[in-house]
Amino acid sequence: MARVFNFGAGPATLPEPVIRQAAEEMLDWHGSGMSVMEMSHRGKIFVAIHAQAEADLRELMAIPKNYKVLFLHGGAAGQFSIVPMNLLRGKATASYVNTGHWSTRAIAEAKRYCKVSIAASSEDAKFTYAPRQDQWKVDSAAAYVHYTPNETIGGVEFHWIPDTGEVPLVADASSNILSRPIDVSRFGLIYAGAQKNIGPAGLAIVIVRDDLIGQAAPFTPAIFDYKAQAGADSMYNTPPSYTIYMAGLVFQWLKRQGGLKAMEEINIAKARLIYDYLDQTEFYHSPVAKEDRSRMNVPFSLRNAKLDEEFLARSKARGLSELKGHRAVGGMRASIYNAMPVEGVKALVEFMREFERTHG
Ligand SMILES: *Cc1c(COP(=O)(O)O)cnc(C)c1O
């Protein structure tokens, strides 16, 4: 069976060389006689795999020394709670920017722990744009400001880093981490679930500035206390070891591609292929404000929704998989993360053209 081009939003496609390497190392990792998933997380081999993964991530993202890198359980949604538990630091309020599905979910969880003040929202336009900096009203008493740099479902991306002054900026970068270089020093905390741009599901990566940890709310479970996890090298308990190993292989693959600057250029080129086509057709429609279009998730619809089922069936038969949009939005969505090769995007655009020609 040939591999398909998988446009799923997450769990998402992984680089083929990474999967091949994992397959080769599956039964016997480098003469150890066992699979990485069978090894003690405290053994020499796994400790080295873990340390290499962290070192490679630090190098790729140029993470400053005064930031901790944590590999945790619970995915990104776990961080919706874990962030307030750790970062409120006795304050009563946190500020949130609401740009769609994932921001809304983060806000709902935060409300269990504090008062949420909404710094900005794009709900007035059905979450199809990123509110500009001059539309933000950050509560200066807030413990932090949380935003979602890429809304995976709506396909809205901030192509700039907000300035929140003295109030630490927190980003749920689940769906655009590693897609471009960013200045980590502008953030108090960055978190991401792994299954979009990092590796298999089951892992959240947290990059947090030193001075923000150590003041978790007293009720915080120890495995969710950043300080406890940082002090234990993310091994307060057994970490998701195999997922960390896989993430490490992805980091090495990214380095071989030339790092994040090179990935950004490829991602811009891939996104341009599909958006340029969407801009010159009446057959399909892209709902997102042009300047805020995501490079990672491209939602689009057929003007004639009666053709949706046929579009999906025919694309699938072509080896173009998982194009159905999220049930909250409908239509189609092509997720084109780092691991989606440019050939996949070309094949998609070619198919879309042909479908237009035969059904337009
Ligand atoms: C997928 C996603 C999540 C949820 O991730 P889980 O790992 O399933 O908890 C949260 N935020 C964003 C932006 C996402 O894309």
Q: SSE order, as H and E?
A: EHHEHEHEEEEEEEHHHEEHEEH
Instruction: Catalogue the ligands.
Output: pyridoxal-5'-phosphate
| Most strands sheet | 7 strands, mixed
Proportion of strand residues: 15-25%
Oligomer: single chain
Please give the CATH architecture of the largest domain. Answer: 3-Layer(aba) Sandwich
List the domain count as a whole number.
2
Average pLDDT number: 97
- The radius of gyration over CA amounts to 21 Å
How many beta-strand elements? 14
Tell me the CATH superfamily of the largest domain: Type I PLP-dependent aspartate aminotransferase-like (Major domain)
State the CATH class of the largest domain: Alpha Beta
User: Which stretches of 5+ consecutive residues score pLDDT under 50?
Assistant: none
Structural class: alpha/beta
Fold-level CATH name of the largest domain: Aspartate Aminotransferase, domain 2
Portion of residues in helices?
Answer: 25-40%
Distance between the termini: 33 Å
Name the strands of the widest sheet in spatial order.
2-10-9-8-5-3-4
